[in-house]
Structures are given as C-alpha cells and as structure tokens.
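Hi,

I'm pasting everything inline rather than attaching a file, because the server keeps stripping attachments. The sequence lines come first, and each chain or strand is labelled.
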Amino acid sequence: MNASTDEHFRSKDLLGLRFLSTGEITHILDVAEQFRGLNLRAIKKVPTLRGKSVVHLFLEPSTRTRTSFDIAAKRLSADTFSISGSGSSTSKGETLVDTARNLAAMHPDIIVVRHRRAGGALMLSQALPGTCVINAGDGACEHPTQGLLDLLTIRRALGGFRGRVVTIVGDILHSRVARSNVWGLLKVGAAVRVCGPPTLIPPGLKELGVEVHHDLQEAIAGADVIMALRIQQERIPRGGHFFPTLREYSRLYGLNRDKLRNWARKDVVIMHPGPVNRGVELEPEVVDGDWSVILDQVENGVAVRMASMYLVLGGERAAAREGRG
Amino acid sequence: MSVRPTILVGGRVLDPDTGHDDIADVVIDRQGRIKEVGPNLAAQADTKWLRIDTSGKWVMPGLVDIHVHLREPGHEYKETIETGSRSAVAGGFTTIACMANTRPVNDTGSVTRFMVERAKACGLARVLPIAALSKGLKGESLAEIGDMIDEGAVAISDDGMPVMDAHLMRRGLEYSRIFGVPVSVHEEDSCLAHRGCMNEGATSTRLGLPGIPNASEDVMVARDILLAELTGGHVHVAHISTAGSVRLVREAQARGLHVTAEAAPHHFMLTDEAVGDYDTNAKMAPPLRAAEDRDAILRGLVDGTICAIATDHAPHPAQDKDVEFELAANGIVGLETAWGLTIQRVNEGVFDLMHAIRLLTSGPSECFGLETGTLRVGRPADITIVDPSGEQPVIPAELWSRSHNTPFGGWTLPTRIDRTLFGGRSVYVWDGERGQIGGDTASTRRR
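And the predicted assembly:
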C-alpha cells in the first residue's frame, strides 16, 4: 500500500472508523489539531465553509453532540439548519430515505445524521450520492466523531498510541462509542481491553484482537487509559436482564479513588464520553480529579467535527485547486 | 376436465420414488395422470397425442415445496395465489403448501376453502393450505383444525409465530393425531431471541445489531421433541437453521420419534456474513447462521436427517425491505432459485443428483403425506423438465413473483427449467428466449 495516498481523506462521507485507513485517521487528527488552535483564539471564526450549508438531522435526542457539531459548523462560517426527531416528518411515517431525499433536493452540502438504528447513516449515504453524510451516531454501530475525538485526546495525553493500553469499561454491547474506539484504536496500534459483565460483551471481540475481561482489577492493571462508558438506560431494551441494579453494577464496574489507587497506574488517564452518571460509572472525585481528561474530550470534539466537515467537503482538494489556479 | 393425451419422448427420467434414472418416455392420459413410464413407448403413440421431445432433458416429478407464503388473502401487494403459483411453476414447483399467516389468518374452514378455490381458478399449481394451529396465530387457543382439514389443509402450523405456550403445543400435537397430519413448527424462543434481528456473532457485533443466539432455536426443538414423545404427534421442524437442532432431530429420529425437518436453500447456501453492510435481503427468521451451522445442515440433508428442501418463499416488496435493517420485514422469495441453488450444490459434489431431486420431490411429499412428487403410474402428471445444458441468471426485477426480495440477484445458477406440467398440462414453457406462463396455450405473457 502506498502510504502517501493513504494520508488523504478521500470519501465524501464519514460513516465510521471501520471504513477508514490508519493514514486517514491520522490525517483527520492532524487537521483537527490545527482547528484546535483556532478554537483558543479570541476570534474563532474562519470563512472556510462560507456559503456552504449543513443540515443537522437528529432523529434521536442529543444535546452535546448536536451543539458541538453546530458550533463547529458555525466557526467554519457554514449556514446550519436543524431537524429533530419529534416534529420531523419521520414521526409522520415518512421513511428515512424519503426524508433524506427531500432534504437533498434542497441541496445542502453536508447532512449530519444521528439515527436510532444501526446502519442509518450508511443508508443515507447510499441514498444520497451527491451529499456528504457525517454519522453522528447510528444505533449501536458507530459514532465516528466521538471515536476520533477520543483518539485525539489520547494522542495529546500520551503523545502516541503504539504500545499503549486502553481499557474500555461498561456496556460494550449497546455502545457505538465502544465500537468506534475499538476500530480506531486497533488501527492506530494501541492494545485494547474491554471490561464489563458477560451480559454486556458482544461475541467475536477476541477474534479482532481485543482482550475481554470481566474483572475490573485485571482489566485496568497497567492500562494507560481507562475509558468508562455511560450506562445508557434509555438504550438498553427492557427485559434484557443485563444486570440486577445500578448499585451492583457500580460496585463491580464503577471506578472510585480506592480502586484507582490500588489497581491502576499512577498516571492513568480517565475518559468518559459523557454525560456522566456521577456515582455510577465514576465517583465524582474521579470525574473531577487530576486523572480526568473528560472536558478535554469535549473541547477536542469541536475541532474533530470541524476537521470532519472540512475534509468530507474535499477542503484540501479544493484548496489545492485554488492554489494552482 | 380432460387434457390432450401427451407423450414425453426420449428424456432422461429421474425419479427417486420409482428409482428411474434412464432414458424413457412418459405417457399422460386424458385425466392428466401418468399412464406409463418406460423405454420406446413412442411407437404406440396415437397421432392425436401431443408429442413433446425431451431428448437431452431431465424429466422429473414436479417439485414439491411444503413451506411458502402466498400472502392472499390480505397482503396482495406482496404476492397473490396467482403470482405465487406463477413463481412456483417457473421455478419447477407444481405443489406448494402455503402458510396460514394471511389476513384474515387461515384459521377457519372458510379461509381454507377460499384459498383452494382461488388456486383452482388459477389452475397453475397444486396449492395446499396449511391450517393455523391457534386462532389468529395468537398462541392462545386451538383453531378449528378439523374444519380446515376437511376443506383441504394438509398440515398445521403457526409459522412466523413461535408457539411459546408448551401446553398449547402439547394439545395441538395430540389433536393433530385425529387427522394424521404434521405440525410444522417455527422454532424460536421469543424470550431468548429478545429483540434480535440477525444471528448473534462476529457480524452482529461488527454491525451493532442485536443478535439471536442459536439456543433460541435449539431449546424449542428440544422441547417439541419431548412433546412429540409425550403425544405421539408428528413434529416437523420448519426451516431448520442451527447445528444444534440438526443434532437434536437426528437423535430423536434414532430414538424412533416422529420428528422430521426441512431446510431452506438460503440456510444451506449462505452464512450471516451475507448481511454485509445491512443487506435486508439477507434478513430472515430464523436468521442466516455461521458456517458450522450451514455445514451441519448440508450434512443433515445428505444423511437424510432433513427430509426436504423447502423455500420459505416470503415475498416482500421494496417498501417493506428498503428501510433500516432492524425494521425490515423478514424473509426472501425462493421459488425461482431453489432448484438452481440445489443443483449448484450437486455440481460442487455435496449432493448426489438423485438425492437432491428426492429432497425436492418424494422427500417433502412423504413427509406431508401427499400423492405428488412421484412419477408412479396413476398419479397426477405433475412433471418438471429441466435443460441441464442451460443456466439461469437471477435478475430480481424479472422474477415472476410479485416481490423481488432475493439475496441471489446477480448469481447465475446451473441448469434451466424448460417446461413444467401440472396435471398433464404445460403451465410453464421456456421458449428459447423467455419463460411463458400458460405453456402451449399461452394466454398470459410475461410482463
């Protein structure tokens, strides 16, 4: 494989880290790093996407991801339009593909989509050959910008990925964040462990090269990063019998100061995709402690989303054309 | 209703039931029944007889499918008895047993009678309704099975809806003994399947889709084997999909219990990897499983544990399939691809040709106690003629079924159905360029 062609982002869509090459991932992180600097300036707006329109099609409730995308688009000077699940035509029986085609007929440049069902973003991208689609989370499949912002956060905290151990703790089965992180971390060369009750670990992970643990102490021993996942009660189907109570879950898989002091590396980094159930996945002192890079994740999210929008629109190709012309 | 006496001349007659595998002629009488099968019968042929040259062709009993969904009454936008019958005869099937999940459900004699009469009016294939086990397929109380049997139902099934109430299943099996018909069981513990929409495994993990474990089928097969033992009823496992169920059925048969099973072509051709990136044409219940399961089904078909290939022909139009995977309807059409897929396995050396034909003729026929699926003298002249030198490209938009939901689009299947006779009459003929429904007296042309 030719590494140089690999280092550019070629797709019109960002659907998942499973579809990206290592070079593409690194490249998105590098571009995000540049936008990160911009977000620290007094004047944060650049004209990069002036005249472009971005539709936020959020068919599942979201506050932080949607806000993060909206800020990212506006800092790039794009016009943004928001459509949410309730009040949209999907609640009137229109299919996802028809909703998308109707939106596409108004010629937006990017559709950022969040959908309750796995495969939703891929479906949109196939229905819309002429529009860029960014997946903002589809069911339990992927949440690529979250995966990328997690990678950026880890790279900034540790300087790189090779030889590093990342332990993901919690509901792996229903988590799109876990899947995006697993694909991404494996591609950039980190070692990945997952930890949770056997009821929340999907099959086939070992075959991918992921270490599977059910004992928190073993799982976090020697880890450079611990990523705690939110117990998303709204996503866990009723009658699933995955664990008896949040209290017991927390006792077995929640992180507190004692467990970290006794079992983890001193310099371990704690991450969480948010929003945190304080006292369930993480004790408040852990959320707010020196270990935590949770707010860095949020900060990096804006930069990663700016990079994503810039790159799917072929920003570099366009810039190169203008430079030549 | 008499037909013109007909002689099929010079074909290779292949009939597992009578043991024919030789060059022979077949004579069909005025009643549309088989009069004689043997070499060099052409000399005695009357000049008024219809003479069909079958040299170079295979002449077999019309294929028998004991598991299809014809959707009429109630879901005519998916399929009708007529379009489903066309699909059947184009695929070489002359006998099809249709499941009860119509609207209204086939849970009363009058619905059964409607189906039988509609099929007679179409006159293309032998359509045999299957009676619902429970009223409305609700799994709560027994339907009027006796009435439906009297109107022509040949088996009992709540297919599509697992019967979770073991007591109801016990009583259904006991009651079925009055009529000596099988109870075809859709084996899926809906609690274990939970909200799954595909096989549980590496592919479901990759796609983030909720999975269905093999155990959801296996526990039900185990339960119903025990109930067959308790009741003496005939348990027929529909669309068997797991290695575990094949093993359980094999053990039950070794113990002398009346337990049989059928397998669908998609379960012996594909694995859950066919779901790819959310291909809803690879979504069905039970789901496509792992390679070990597919291989166990092939072994079960070879050793006779599984006595029939049945398509589970389940037509759904685009609006029911072109949606999110989790929301898509279950099932695929199968009548027009089953023969070619089976022969593909023959060509690969998995099945012996005669055995493959048995699995599509006398196997299912004996299982359901039907008179077709054989070329015995006196039986209906339901005959399928195959051109072994032909091939069949699968083009979904050109299927005869009203729906085109197949994962085999783009495949080219070996051999081609050359002609299908139903009761001595040609109901499907390949004219060299295209198929014609209605055969020699074609009134309905292809779209």
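The mean pLDDT of chain B is 96.

If the labels don't parse on your end, tell me and I'll reformat.
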